[in-house]
Here is the input.
Amino acid sequence: MIATIARKEFLEIVRDGRFKWTAALMVLLLVTALLAGWQRFNSYSQIQATAQGSTNTQWLKQGDKNPHTAAHYGNYAFKPLGPLAFFDSGIVNYAGTAVFMEAHKQNFAIARPATDTSAVARFGELNGAMILQVLLPLLIIFLGFTAFSGERETGTLRQLMSMGVSRGSLLWGKAAGIAAAVLLVVLPCLAVGALALAATGLQTAGGGIWTRVALIGGAYLGYAAVFLFLTLAVSAWAKTARTALMALVGFWAFTAFIMPKTAAEVSRLVEPSPAFGTFMAEMKEHQKRGIDGISPRIKLAQYRGELFRKYGVSRVQDLPVYWTAVSMQKLEELDHPVFEQHYNAVRDEYARQLRLQDRLGLLAPLLPLRSISMTLAGTDLIQHNRFMAETEVFRRNMVLKMNTYLSQAAANLNGVNSATNYMIANEDVFAIVPPFRYEPPALRDVIASQAGNFTLLAGWLLATIVLALVAVKRMSLERN
Amino acid sequence: MLEAIDLKKTYGDYQALKGLNLRVNGGDIYCLLGANGAGKTTTINLFLNFVTPTSGVARVNGIDVNADPLQTKRYLAYIPEQVMLYGNLTGMENLEYFARLGGHDEYSADDYRGFLRRVGLQEDAAGRRVKTYSKGMRQKVGVAIALAKQARALLLDEPTSGLDPKASNEFSELLVQLKSEGAAILMATHDLFRAKETGTRIGIMRGGQLVQELSTDEVSHADLERIYLEHMH
Here is the structure.
């Protein structure tokens, strides 16, 4: 019975002139978006690998110089992206893709493509995720809004119900028929996407590429089903097809455009984040003042006293370690808690904003889906924060290695004017700093972070199915 | 067999049906006559369970319609004034769809063609999309659906109004055939001539009540018209 209804529904949709146009448009947009994303990802990956390679070489070949100066010369980290970034670029365009790592300073990521584009591009670049998040619901609405309301208007609903069909079977049959028509459009496009993915090589950041694909696929399927059942519910409920269409398109605009923007604004209002200038100024001020209000200069004097006691000496020139180097390292370490406090505060702020936005997913199913999608694609805020944390680990290690080397190699220069006579190191010394490698988070942790969003999406699906069942049970067969 | 026992339907203060008692046996064509608003369509809707009765019982084949609507609909076929079909499907596809929904998966394409031939639909029309059909052709598909469904009872709501005389005549002939095969047929109509010609029994309704029942072989066409008009005044 359900299969019979599904088959007829599918046949009717596919024969409708509207279907051919919307399907053609959808295929065109989706394939373009996927291929454009794929091309963008490939060129990005190439540039990233090349840039990381050349910055590593640059570090080694920077020319013979003092190790601490080498730490100032610094090193770049370029964020590697997992292959699924081609499908969902997440916040990559806004958060930055490169970090300059140098002595004394913890920097924000730079190279944010969004800053190089016009205002129109801020609307969001064309990628597969965006098409599926925004246009797939619209396709479902267009194919489904007449499911009940149209049959009621033409009078076939009475004919249909006189056959002895249960309303439940009618709902499932129609859902299956519309779903088949939607999949007919979307699946071939996604197959193209999967081929592109397979062609990039599957060494994804974090591993488990097909687990990620399956979970992302499941999430989008659930999201599409939410719109499918909502469309059927409204179609059964609304007095006319026109009303159904208007209500559905209204909800679509609400969830696809109004809510994401509103959620961002609300979260910023509730959990305000500092302006960049203020943030930097406050951090610098704090560095000068010292984490606990004791200035680094006083701390440094205390440290010298400790070293004198430790080595049983009373003059810098008698120290067995190069004082300039150990004092630089001490200053560096005094900054660590200040960096941590300020950067952690702002990251916590963002995390709270994100949690709030996720919770607003109660009002719009797009929000939990968006988080799931970008998190599994590895292009979300949490994974960006992890990248930033790893660059800081690298930076500290680089500075520590250089200062430590210098402190031992140049102990004989204590008391000598360091401006005229200093230790020179070469490539072999720089090589003790291992090149930057990014270890993405374990897939298990990535999935666990999205448990709440998966639950929200499942809740939406359940609620819309119940809504559709109730609407169909109460559905009027008459036009008025 | 169709049976109504003290069937009542009220909408707020308005009594659409005031205690209808009616019985249509297999082999009967029972014609319900009456002005618009007399309760004919309400009666048919009650048998179809499209509306629930305020009180009383409607039975199809002895089963209470309200208690087991899906079961009673298996025995029924419904042909309204305008049989509504899916314009983008062919006549064959419409017939197959409705037959399957009616619980009949057993037919072959030849069977479906046979049903459509029996109701007099042109051979070449069966494979055409229904949106190109005339009203008469749609009504024929409606009868074909009833045939495919092997309906024991037919509910017809002014099925021939708007049909040209030839199409109307063909339709009536089909009804007579179905009757002779043992179907119970309840038909709401304004066509006194057709009622007399094809009906076996006639019920005149007014204001939600059955005011008179008679057998068509007891009255002449002129008598029927006179009796009907007397009730309408």
